[in-house]
Amino acid sequence: MLKKRFTAFRGLRAAFVAALGLVLAVLGGRALAQQDKYTLRVPGGLAFSEFRGYESWQVVAISHSGDLLAAILANPMMIDAYQAGIPGNGKPFPNGAKMAKIHWNAKKNEYFPDASVPGTQHDVDFMVKDSNRFADSGGWGYAVFNYDAVSKTFSPGTEANKPPQGNDAKCGHACHTTVKARDYVFTEYGMR
To answer: How much is the pLDDT for 78?
Structure first.
């Protein structure tokens, strides 16, 4: 009788250990699935890690295009350049100036339906001024990282995007040539 109970206990213990192992594997898999966005890189160019801390940069301006809302942010060097009158004074932005543009899908504000507010994130675009590294694109490097709200992960932009992304550090250069006289920067520094 004692031997039967011991055998049954061993069976239960084995089942418990197997179940615990499965739970840990699932939880561990989720932990591993959590993406470290700072490990991503656009082929041939910019890395997400080059923009670490962009979430707390100062807002330069906001924009609305189609179904997307955006906040354009800049690092302190870029903000200082704007405050010094660049690009309106004809001078170029200094090397090290960086911008981030966070796009969200617009949604109606549930408390004030006449207003649109950010919904799920759509992507984040980056620009960095580095005249040596990006000499053939006006001194600027560009990157787009699409955001998947379901998996909560980012991925580099591709030719399938709208607008198409060259999937390298110069993906934004073609569009930005229209503002070459402004050192390739569209965004005006919003009045405070």
So the answer is: 98
What pTM does this model have? 0.79
Q: What CA–CA distances, in Å, run from 28 to 22, 35, 78, 182, 183? A: 10, 13, 41, 49, 47
What does R_g of the chain's alpha carbons equal in angstroms?
Answer: 24
How many Å apart are CA 59 and CA 75, to the nearest integer?
A: 9
Number of other residues whose CB lies within 10 A of the CB of residue 117:
13
- Amino acid 31: pLDDT: 44
Q: Measure the CA–CA gap between 165 and 121, rounded to whole angstroms.
A: 18
d(CA 188, CA 23): 52
**C-alpha closest to that of 105 among 52, 146, 142:** 146
5: which DSSP letter? H
What's the pLDDT tens digit per position in 17-35?
454 454 555 555 444 457 7
